[in-house]
Design a protein that fits this description.
Four Helix Bundle (Hemerythrin (Met), subunit A); mainly alpha; elongated; 79% helix
């Protein structure tokens, strides 16, 4: 998608990243890059924890990690990822265990799209 704003279909809304950079401008661009690195590293850990929790039937852990991923995704403009995280969180909270596997697979796929967008953004800033 380059430097244009994401269509909202998935990935990262680059206008949100631009606003984040603007709001943190006085701290330098490294702060935003560090924040995005934390998002990616923690996201991988959260996905792995959710996968393990799903395999063991621990829906409260799925709910917790989906909730934290939702907040992080909102911060960086990953709207679809945030929405999928909310759906997974709600399904876990409501005990809709038959839906969790499909929702998690969609979430994992969208996380990969976000990670690709962030990598392209990083390369464009290098």
């Amino acid at each position: 998608m380059g430097a244009e704003e994401s269509s909202g279909a998935g990935g990262v809304d680059l206008s949100v990243l631009a606003r984040l950079r603007e709001s943190l401008r006085e701290h330098g661009d490294d702060v935003v890059q560090e924040l995005l690195g934390v998002f990616e590293n923690e996201g991988v850990k959260r996905l792995a924890a959710m996968d393990r929790a799903l395999l063991s039937g621990d829906v409260s852990t799925v709910q917790l990690y989906a909730h934290t991923l939702r907040g992080s995704a909102q911060l960086i403009g990953a709207h679809r990822l945030a929405g999928l995280s909310a759906r997974l969180e709600d399904a876990a909270r409501d005990g809709e265990v038959e839906d969790l596997g499909v929702l998690f697979a969609d979430l994992r796929d969208e996380y990969q799209a976000v990670a690709r967008d962030l990598e392209l953004e990083r390369r464009g800033r290098a």
